[in-house]
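Appendix B, Record 12. Input sequence as logged:
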Amino acid sequence: MNEQYSPNFKHGPNTVCPNCGGFQKVSEPRLYMIRATEETHAGMTLGEWRTCPQCQGDGHTPGLRPPV
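Logged structural output:
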C-alpha cells in the first residue's frame, strides 16, 4: 500500500477482505521449469500476483461479515 491511497468508506462499516487480508492481491502459484544449476533439473513453484477477485482490489468488502 502506498501513502496516497485512501479507501472509500461511504457505504457504512466495512470488513477487511478475508481472501486477501486487505493486501488487495493474491498469489497464484505457477509451476515453472527452471534449471538453476547443472545438477538441478527440477521445477520450481513461483507465485504471480493478481488482483483479488473477491474485493476487486479494494482490500475490504462492504458490510460486516464475521469469519466462518
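The CA atoms of residues 25 and 50 lie 5 Å apart.
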